[in-house]
Amino acid sequence: LPAGKTTLALGDQIGVFPVQSVSENEILLGEDDKHLNFLISVLRHENGVALSTWVRTHNGFGKAYLLTIMPFHKIIVRDAAKRISRDT
Length: 88
Known about the structure:
By secondary structure, this protein is α+β, with helices and mostly antiparallel strands. The chain has one domain (13-87). Helices cover 32% and strands 40% of the residues. Strands 1-2-3-4-5 form a five-stranded antiparallel sheet. The model has no long low-confidence stretch (mean pLDDT 88).
């Protein structure tokens, strides 16, 4: 949660990601842009938490951007998952 907050609401931010939806078991973060849209799902279930990412590109720039960041994204997500599993 953002510093000083005890609940999340539409329009809040977690890091650089705007909150799009909040329900009892899922938080959706993401943004729509003219080049691409993305959503990050943080879904709580009885055995833990599942993180999922969806990206939809709209044009060549969006595809080029996605191809450029994907190798770094994979490293960052893998390292974050290791930290989370180590801390729980």
